[in-house]
Specification:
By secondary structure, this protein is an alpha+beta fold. The chain contains nine helices and 14 strands. α5 (196-207) runs antiparallel to α7 (216-230). It is elongated and about 70 Å long.
Amino acid sequence: MLIFRLILIFIIFYQVQSSCSYFNNYYLLGELNSTSNTIKKCKNQSDKCIYIAINIPALVIGNFSGCQDGVSETLSKIIHKRQDILDLFKPFIKNDNNNVYVDAICKSSNNINQTERAQTMSGMMRLYSICYSQGQENTESMIYFDPPLNSTSPVQCLDTFDKPLECKEGYCGIFQIAYLEGNGSTQKEREYASCPNDLINQLYLLKNDQVIKNIPSLSESLSNMGDICANNFFLNTLNADNSSAHFCYIGCFIPNDNKYQSFLEFPNLKLISETMTNIGTTSIDIYSTTPKSTSKKMIKMWLLLFLTLCLIFNVKI
């Protein structure tokens, strides 16, 4: 009987020593993933336990913990949702399965109370990670990012072709871009309507388009658009000089009684660029928090008045 008890104590002790605290409590694209805290045995006794706290605007916020394989799968699922985030994590991705090598992340940032930061298309990413041996845990110094208590309610949006589209993030997004190509004789125009995460992905693709890369002011404008969307704002931006011009408009919003924000009328960039020959360079940004203050008529009248006054008084901006 004594031998049996000793064996049982050894088995329990071994299981505790070769296990990690496992839980999920993170909010990803409008959906809350939450599990109770349990103890799970790892595949290998040499595996590390890993805790992650992460906050990426418009994508994810929360915390999760477990054996390194499980944490790797969860983090990989998150970063593959956005191309800009995936590119940030490329140094930590395994070639064989495209999963994140989380142990390498811990080795690069394993300082208590230190949060790694990186700029993304939707704002500043904050990432905290810590690795510890199985059976050991120190929660006193850990950093937490509190997710919402519940999942958000999906909303129905419209895509670029006015077809119904369900967005789990709880809001919709539209984006327009126009710029002059080549010698300025051709105006290129594009319109997008989608769920916010897809829209931010599209912004990143546009930002890395070779033609747009050759227009630094336009590339810079695109870098700021995702942050505007993440905060449910609207922004019109017009930049012009005597050789080029571009226009961007983004609006991210919660639809009200199935009423959706519509696209704006594209300005004549060639005409604006030619006008700038006399008055220099200008950049106009119009921010708002509601779609009503960004009507087509108001923006068009405001721009025309601005340019007219510049011409009359020969003002250089």
